[in-house]
């Protein structure tokens, strides 16, 4: 009752949608457009990454350095690992430290690749997988954001700063620039923000991205090896317990969950190209689906 009608080309009448339904569909369409991957803009991405990293560093270093609490938490983790017979960090630290060229290389690995590889993967996604870039970037940013909560709620000293066990601060001993938390740079970073390990969170994000999207087999193998080697490095240099790596993995799982909920799919399941992007010369782009034919209208030639 009270349903309004319209007349089609052949005189047929059909119901129109109510204003309430139109409004609902319009709102859902707006949300869908917000969630749809868009072509990334270079200037915006550079600005976003720069501001985001500055904010991350500011917040991370603004977390109070609760030295007593951080050392107490480290002692508890160490006792628990020994009770479970899984405390391998000290043995690995001493074994690798005995090979000077190896541990010095790991110090520089720890200090540099964390940033270089992550930025390189972001650039690669931006250039070759624009349809997946925003979702993958959201997963990385959400991972980093939840890590800040961990730094605040659970201050943790790295093994090299503990008083009891005989861990070796490899950067200090070998006088290499390998950590902003050692030597002359130690005042530029919160030394008690070890849980979770973003070296693992970021490297695992890079490794999974490379493994999922790279086409060359040996490159995919490198993607898997990168977070594995990073785990060896953070333990060998006594910058993290291996349980810190577990914390980094959980943060990454949270990041991918956020991206999955927002975009409706994992980043690597999205189309490589942005929908509606003009195809390059010689390449075929996405084909638009034909408009639906209204009821009662005969298409030409039928």
List keywords for this structure.
single chain; 302 residues; mainly alpha; two-stranded antiparallel sheet; 10 helices; 60% helix; disordered C terminus
Q: What does this 3D model show about the protein?
A:
- The chain has 302 residues and is mostly helical.
- It has a domain at 72-269.
- The protein has 10 helices and 2 strands; from the N terminus they run ββαααααααααα.
- It has helices spanning 19-35, 42-62, 67-83, 89-97, 100-128, 130-153, 170-174, 198-213, 217-236, 242-263, and strands at residues 5-7, 13-15.
- A two-stranded antiparallel sheet has the order 1-2.
- The longest helix is centred in the middle third of the chain and has 29 residues, at 100-128.
- The chain is globular.
- The two termini are 36 Å apart.
- The model is unreliable at 1-28 and 277-302 (pLDDT under 50).
- The backbone outline, from C-alpha atoms, is globular
Identify low-pLDDT runs. 1-28, 277-302
* Helix share, percent: 55-70%
Quick one: biggest sheet?
A: 2 strands, antiparallel
Q: What is the spatial order of strands in the main beta sheet?
A: 1-2
What is the CA-based Rg, rounded?
Answer: 26 Å
Helical stretch count?
10
One letter per element, helices H and strands E, the order comes to EEHHHHHHHHHH
Would you tell me the overall average pLDDT?
A: 79
Report the strand count. Answer: 2
Alpha-beta content class? mainly alpha
Oligomer: single chain
Distance between the termini: 36 Å
């Amino acid at each position: 009752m009270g349903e309004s009608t319209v007349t089609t080309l052949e005189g047929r009448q059909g119901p129109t949608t109510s204003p309430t339904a139109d409004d609902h569909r319009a709102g859902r369409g707006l949300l869908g457009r917000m969630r749809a991957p868009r072509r990334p803009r270079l200037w915006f991405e550079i600005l976003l990454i720069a501001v985001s990293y500055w904010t991350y560093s500011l917040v991370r270093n603004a977390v109070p350095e609760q030295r007593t609490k951080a050392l107490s938490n480290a002692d508890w983790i160490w006792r628990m690992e020994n009770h479970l017979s899984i405390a391998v960090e000290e043995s690995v630290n001493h074994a690798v430290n005995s090979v000077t060229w190896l541990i010095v290389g790991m110090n520089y690995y720890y200090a540099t690749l964390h940033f270089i590889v992550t930025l390189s993967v972001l650039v690669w996604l931006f250039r070759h997988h624009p349809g997946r870039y925003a979702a993958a970037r959201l997963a990385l940013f959400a991972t980093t954001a939840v890590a800040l909560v961990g730094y605040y709620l659970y201050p943790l000293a790295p093994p090299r700063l503990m008083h009891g066990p005989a861990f070796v601060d490899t950067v200090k001993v070998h006088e290499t620039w390998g950590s902003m938390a050692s030597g002359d740079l130690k005042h530029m970073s919160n030394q008690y923000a070890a849980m979770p390990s973003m070296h693992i969170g970021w490297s695992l994000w890079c490794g999974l991205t490379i493994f999922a999207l790279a086409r060359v087999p040996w490159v995919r193998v490198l993607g898997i090896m990168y977070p594995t080697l990073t785990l060896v490095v953070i333990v060998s240099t006594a910058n993290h317990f291996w349980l810190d790596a577990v914390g980094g993995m959980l943060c990454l799982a949270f990041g991918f969950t956020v991206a999955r909920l927002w975009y409706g799919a994992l980043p690597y399941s999205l189309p490589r190209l942005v929908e509606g992007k003009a195809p390059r010369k010689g390449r075929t782009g996405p084909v638009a689906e034909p408009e639906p034919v209204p009821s009662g209208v005969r298409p030409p030639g039928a």
